[in-house]
Amino acid sequence: MELILEDGTVFSGKNFGYNGSVAGEVVFNTGMVGYPETLTDPSYTGEILVFTYPLIGNYGVPAQTMVDNLKANFESDKIHLKGIVITSLTEDYSHWNAVQSLDAWMKEHKIPGLQGVDTRALTKRLRTAGTQLGKLISQGKDIPFYDPSKDNLVAQVSIKEPILYERGEKKVLLVDTGCKNNIIRSFLNRDVSVLRVPWDYDFSNEEFDGIMLSNGPGDPTKIPETIANVRKWLDKDKPIFGICLGHQILALAAGAQSYKLKFGHRSQNQPCILVGTKRCFITSQNHGYAIDDQTLPADWQPWFFNANDGSNEGIRHRTKPIRSVQFHPEAMPGPVDTAFLFDEFVAML
Amino acid sequence: MEHNISKVIILGSGALKIGEAGEFDYSGSQAIKALKQEGIYTVLVNPNIATIQTSDHLADKVYLLPVTADFIEGVIKKERPDGILLAFGGQTALNCGMILDETGILEKYNVQVVGTPVDVIRSTEDRQVFAEKLAEIDVPVPRSRAASTVEEALQVAEEIGFPVMIRLGFALGGLGSGVCWNEEEVKDLAVNALSHTSQLLVEEYLKGWKEVEYEVVRDCYDNCITVCNMENFDPLGIHTGESIVIAPSQTLSNSEYHMLREIAIKTVRHLGVIGECNIQYALNPKSEEYRVIEVNARLSRSSALASKATGYPLAFIAAKLGLGYSLTELKNSVTLSTMACFEPALDYVVVKIPRWDLKKFRRVSTQIGSSMKSVGEVMSIGKTFQEALQKALRMLDIGAWGLVTNPNGLGIKKNDEELLEELINPTDERIFSVASALKQGMSVDELYKHTDIDPWFLHKLANIVRVEGLVGEYSGGNCPRHVMDEAKRVGFSDPQLGKLLGTTERIVRKMRLNYGITPYVKQIDTLAGEYPAQTNYLYLTYNASEDDIELGDKNSVMVLGSGPYRIGSSVEFDWCCVNAVKTVKKEGYRSIMINYNPETVSTDYDEVDRLYFDEIRLETVLDIYEKESPEGIVISMGGQVSNNLALPLEQMGAKVLGTTPTQIDRCEDRHKFSSMLDTLGIDQPAWSELTSIDEAKKFAHKVNYPVLVRPSYVLSGAAMGVANNDREIESFLQKATDLSTDHPVVISKFLSNAKEIELDAVAKDGKIVTFAISEHVENAGVHSGDATLVLPPQRTFLETIRRIKLIARQIAKELHITGPFNMQFIAKENSVKVIECNLRASRSFPFVSKVCKKNFIEVATQAILGKPFPEDNRSFMELDYVGVKASHFSFTRLLGADPTLGVEMASTGEVGCLGDDFHEALLKAMRSVGFRFPIKSMLISTGSIEQKAYFLEAARLLQKMDIKIFATTGTYHFLKESGIKVTLAAWPDEQEGSNVLDLLAQNSLDLVVNIPKNAEVEEITNGYKVRRKAVDLGTPLITNIQLAKRLVEAIYSKPDQDLAIKAWDEY
């Protein structure tokens, strides 16, 4: 099997998982744990993901148990990315919680994998040349390149009908633009009910105590419907909290602008500094677009920034309980240092 | 950043010992660099003269003094520092710091502790307080209770239920701890343990649980990160210092990884650590249940490993955080573009394996467990566990070519029973036996049942065994490319492949290069390639398709390091390597270092232009040599590991710098060397190389006993020994399994009552340019690495020195030496014989360099590079002070080992102290290796009648000082008859109860002098019992009569113990 990049570079290796050709955008992630969570993160829709950590599959894949109508061990119901590229696959996994191998699971979901690749060399190429289109070609079956940023990926991954997750009296309206399960769990664990609605759902007539804007795949400007829905609530006093794509949507709704990063942030070790302090948090991230905080309107202010490249990592309204972060406080995978943001949001409801 | 500190004292860790080794040279050196960057005046106290941190270019002031409260108080009084650093000198510094705090010395002199406050340290050290602290935040520790008597320990054990683990408060390296399965074992362990500490801890033993560690960093703004996590290959019950360790963890899911990470951060915040600490967990392999085992609120062995594993300089950062910096204000020193407040992402794996040296000791148990016995460690880097593991096994330098296909039958047991025993009750060779079991067809499930090693690891080992079989199919034929490629990717070496294919390493290399299978150079950049990094920290892997960096683009010189610390080769060679690299840089070359010992300073990427953290083996050195095309390779700095490569490297066409490999061979080859000495008319002890016991005996009769016996291949037990009669020669040679023409025995005449003298020198083009001569306190027969060295010599005739000088000149000329060399001589009256010559730097180079204040290595490197060096005619004979190097023995940790000195080296470390006279230097050195003065009572048992007579004068001095003397029967009668007041201490076999052993246990004697009649006997003698009891109780022990006498004289000469607090530069 080969990985062919847009610029013509070819990386050869051995196929695992599903044996078939796929095309998408090639990105890399430097996380060292959490491949079941990563593979089921809807934000990776349309991507071929390169793992820089060389050993993948070590602890197998856990059971498909449902808790609260959510897959307990995954971030959504299926694998969303197009394929993965790794250095070395562990077939003889070992974990008390595992029921199958990564290889078997990917075969089930018809997701191809490529192993035996110098993923560091590949990553350096992506880092210098920027994110590229690419395709995994199985047994010479060539297919055309595919640019996921041309599509409305959110529409592909969002739910079709609202779902209510009942818990305590307080209720959060969750706009699902490709939501990870752990955002929902984060509320349920804090005894807050969640009404999960589709990305383009008009929720003006719903009853709720706050709005949660979820993570999701792709370019935020591709979903003006969601941005317009959110904008209606900015001059009201309902608390709003956004994560990742949700953060970008909130910023765009407020009037700021987004841009595409050269190769994105996909890792579990991104340091983010709380503006105006010496406090730094290690965060989990997965995004290819970012907000230009120079374009924020006057009643908004930057909240967090990335300590490595200075990019915006969060914004907040100067007076209203409306704020958002680019990183993932719900973690899964990654560090849980910023889980307190959920506590703060729930306290505002 | 502003802070109110302008001068600090840094406490070092003293001599290298089991549980406290080179890692503290690395962390201390980093701390000094960090402080100097801030313009802070640094005062270092460390008697370990072989360390880099005691070099003239680091701390502003160096005191080669014991790290004990009284000496530190002296230094504080003199230097008046604002701050003190306790976290960089291991448990030694921490314990000393706590005493300084408790006794009010820090307060008295207004010295502030930089970094984690003392009360926080105390809460991590006192097991009971620690458990209470963690209970406050609902973090579970193993169920346990403290006990301060044996009865209490038994009672707690009953409550918790067997098996239980017994640990000691305030101890390092799991000293004295162990698993007890019944009451009897609790009793035994508790009695011993309570002789070291007032408090012990009885806790639940979590058999088979995984052991996981996190390295945590926290600043005073409450930013807290985990820099690295590590998982032990061996399950709980085997001390982490005795375990094979992999970083990052391999079998933890996201949820487990981050659960433990979050708890680490929560715990460290709650405790209030500032700087760096380490947290160890037990994790249930069947659930997410866990326990916190311990927190070390200081830099540790693990933190040094984590620094090397990730490229994150923990000690450097910790020092800055202690001053009040925020992590957000510090740079990532690898990328220089990103910040220190981040958690490294690895795109490789790291495997650490401990290096044991148990065969060097008589009677020691080779089982590994909850107490540390290893003397060093290696770290390897690879893309896969298999690649890294096989590298690491080779790095140990114990003759392994990898996990399998080993030349010396490693791990192969006589029968299934022995194999099972090894699997269940591991020794230092278990991993090889696991491979053996897999080869015999034992399933992973069954192996897991016996070993509790996670099946993930076992499957990976099974795959190596599978590949071994696959390659073996092509024995005698042509190995296809894809098979060789697969083998190299899982870490097979060329020698392994050579053996499997029935050919030589050389042919395999040729085949491999023809196939285009070569390793690639990768960088360690802390961010897995996410950001560009100008890092010079490199390793090789076969799981890659391109090099990370441009190669061979500059004039460079390669220096080979010394590999793992083991008995006979440790920090002193690292000092040589670091100084060689410094000189290489200074002379305008790009310096390239190859080494793989994570404890060292030479593997600090700060010290060198390019660091290859990889094997020092012909194959690897050639791979790097061919990529970098350096001007040449310096092989004379890393001890025997690098020296052994001289001839093979040259034969493969590499350029070896310095004395030519042919000449090195003339010196290493006993026959060639001997006939050269004969030709030059230089005397040497009579010797012969023999292949049978009969011949050996015949030779011994010819030259008269005693003789020194040195078999070339011994399966177990000490390799060398002195034989006094036929019976002893037989017992020695029976241990040599294979006495034949291929494995002959070398027997030489052993000269008793002779002095041993060493020469360290540098020559250029056959002419000596500088040298120093040191004498041993002990007579010949004590290994030079264990002997007490004196420079300048105090008791050697001038004529002897003159003769030694002449011989050295002749040899340097004959071998056309360029570079460092060392010779050992035996002198009796004025006759001088050569016993050894090494054309490389020796163990004593740092000692002589620092005592003479003349950097021998710098001069040697300049000579090797053909560069000029300034003329320096200062002679060691004109020094108006004396340097004494003393050895540190770790017998206390080596359960059962007979603590005697012999021709095999046994010490794990050394110190070097200066004094205005010999007595002062000796007393400081002895204090530094754990002796306690003043002496109020002591036990004497002086062996043979000659030794009794020799010691009599000293005994009279003891009497004059009113020291209470106990003596064993023979010595008692001798002393009594000589008019000395002495109390009898009966031998154990003479009297049950109230014998010498009870005396030792009940009284705290300050010193035991026990001179074995014959150091080589292996039976359990009375003497053995006394010696062993002394070290088990932590009572200072001397087993050499010359040293005993010199020490008594020294004590007598300084009745008030007024030892000068003088810095190195004040001499």
Automatic annotation (TrEMBL), chain A:
Chain ranges of the Carbamoyl-phosphate synthase small subunit N-terminal domain: 1-137
The residues annotated as the active site are: C244, H328, E330
Q: For this protein, what reaction is catalysed?
A: L-glutamine + H2O = L-glutamate + NH4(+); hydrogencarbonate + L-glutamine + 2 ATP + H2O = carbamoyl phosphate + L-glutamate + 2 ADP + phosphate + 2 H(+)
Show the GO MF annotations. ATP binding; carbamoyl-phosphate synthase (glutamine-hydrolyzing) activity; glutaminase activity
What PANTHER family does the entry give?
Answer: CARBAMOYL-PHOSPHATE SYNTHASE SMALL CHAIN, MULTIFUNCTIONAL TRYPTOPHAN BIOSYNTHESIS PROTEIN-RELATED
Job of this protein: Small subunit of the glutamine-dependent carbamoyl phosphate synthetase (CPSase). CPSase catalyzes the formation of carbamoyl phosphate from the ammonia moiety of glutamine, carbonate, and phosphate donated by ATP, constituting the first step of 2 biosynthetic pathways, one leading to arginine and/or urea and the other to pyrimidine nucleotides. The small subunit (glutamine amidotransferase) binds and cleaves glutamine to supply the large subunit with the substrate ammonia.
**Which NCBIfam families has this protein been placed in?**
CPSaseIIsmall, PRK12838.1
Instruction: Report what the protein is called.
Output: Carbamoyl phosphate synthase small chain
Q: Which gene encodes it?
A: carA
TrEMBL record, chain B:
Full protein name: Carbamoyl phosphate synthase large subunit
Superkingdom, natural source: Bacteria
Needed cofactors, names only, are: Mn(2+); Zn(2+)
**Which pathway features in its UniProt record?**
Amino-acid biosynthesis; L-arginine biosynthesis
- Please name the PROSITE patterns in this protein's record: ATP_GRASP, CPSASE_1, CPSASE_2, MGS
> What organism does the UniProt record list as the source?
SAR324 cluster bacterium
Annotated ATP-grasp domain ranges read 131-323, 674-865
Q: Any keyword Cytoplasm?
A: no
